[in-house]
Amino acid sequence: MSDGVTLVYLHGVGDGDEDDAWWSVLDGSLRAVGLAGLEGVDIVAPKYPHTLRFPGDEKVKLPPTRVDCPGGSAGRAFQRDVERRTARLEELLERHDPGAGWTFGNSVVDLGLNLDRLVQASRYLKDEQTRARTLDLVLRRLPTSGRIVVVGHSLGSVIALDLLRRLPPEVEVAGLVTIGSPIAHPEFHTGKLKDLLPRPPANLAWWVNFWSDGDVVTTHRGASSAFPWTLDQRLRLPMFRHGSAAYLGHPSVAQAIGHGVFGSTSTELAVIERTPDVPLEAVEIRLLLALRYAHFVHEHLEGERQARYEGALRVVQERVARQVIDTYLQQGKRVPSAIADLVPEVGVPTPATISSLDSETALEHLLSICATNLLMPFEVKVDTDVRRRALEDLTVSMGLGSGLGRDVFDAYRAAEKSLRSGGRGLEWVLLGVGGALLIAATGGLALAAAPGVAGAAAVTSALAAFGPGGMIGGLMTAGAMVGAGSSSVAVALASGGTTLQQVEAVLTLSLADAIARQKRGLDAPADLRVGLVEMATEVRRELSRLGAYSDDGAATLKTLRGKLAAVEKALEFLDGSGLAERPATD
Fold first, then answer.
1. Is the peptide bond between 186 and the residue preceding it cis, with omega within 30 degrees of 0?
2. Digit-coded pLDDT (tens) for 53-98
3. Of 169, 442, 473, 496, which cross-links 468 as Cys (Cβ 3.0–4.6 Å)?
4. Cβ(251)–Cβ(33) below 8 Å
5. What CATH topology corresponds to 5-54+88-267?
6. 3-state secondary structure of 289
7. CA proximity to 544, closest of 497, 536, 492
8. What is the rounded distance in angstroms from the CA atom of residue 521 to the CA atom of residue 508?
């Protein structure tokens, strides 16, 4: 049984599926994946082709918005819940796939809107009365309270999104499934729909969007290009298949709809969240995440390289864990079980799952992981694709979905590419000599080493043992540099104590943070551009001071010129990408 859930089906253009053929297709696909069919399920499938075809004489007001998209701390907590539910669904289905988009995809859809077949869609998008009458009709058919699962096909997906915030507050949307949706195309953001839904509305549990390679209406990309909090699922349907039957007959679509209507029937969706007997500090959380990421990397490697990686990981994990544990014991304090469990009895224990972070809080940790060789002092080459997939696995295990891992990794690589001056990747450079200066300049350890904080003390001690070139030192250095741009950092980077590559590393992480925030629809760092301008000013000032008497070819001047060029590249990239245009808000 559906446990009181009402299934709502919103059709696309055409005659409104007068025979309800969609019902039999979905009923069959639900049974094929081992779920109950639609018998006994409350169903609402409003028909509205006449409102799309004819303007009508009676004037209807556009239904008002009645549901908020919560912001501030409450909004972040709610979005965290949405992300966790979405990640569970992603475990049931496939990894998030937003698609790359066709070069001329938007143009094809633009032309299609002028055809007779799609004139209904065009009228809904451009005529407010058509839109108002359609939304009013659908709302009158829906229950006024309780839980619903909404399935929207094609234009029906646009109508579904338009409805979300207009539903009665007593209605809970237990799931939204869109199929063959054109919503990635900006023309379909009727009534500034993208602005209306900057975050998940308070009545929505999750949204999964299915798109197909062969469906031109989807322009070969998913809904997350416009709504970053969406789970996109790519299907490989035959070319030019756009009808609802092709989608509803697919097992993945049936699984998603069944999950919303009947609840989870899979033990894979259970997220076991371990509550430690001693609360973990932020730096310990970062350590656990980094080690868990390394385990995912190991899983994706093969052969002799996998064996070498496992051996190095065993040594590094045990060494770091024992150092942190010794610090706790010396202080006479209990060791968090998540840390104690890192010490191997047999093999290399997998670190505990961390599933208590929201995506914005996780950014700093994830970027630190991208920028650090987690096997220091060992070096094992890992291909880019393996590292990206491992980060996706990590964010899924965190309950944040693979899209976050992909966005963070791609943001880091994009920032690195924009600044690289040649030679080795910046991920190793962060750990070179002089890293201690960067830690001090950014205040990373000063903030961490508060009196009486066991976790911070453990990390401080570990840094003394491993140096900034060790695993924890690298994670702390990278984390402290995320979003760096204050005047104190600018002065430190302009000095002769830092290398060009270290400056590039700071800039890379700062830009990567901004790029990742843009990808996720988060506020950009408010002072990033100001910090870069300050940095450029300090470098020019140092160049002027030293250039007055030094030889023109002096190594110090060459380094300073390189630093200035790197900062100017960062500013050019920042302005060209629009990364600093959106001010930060609470």
1. no
2. 876 777 889 999 999 998 888 887 888 788 888 888 888 888 888 8
3. 473
4. yes
5. Rossmann fold (3.40.50)
6. helix
7. 536
8. 20
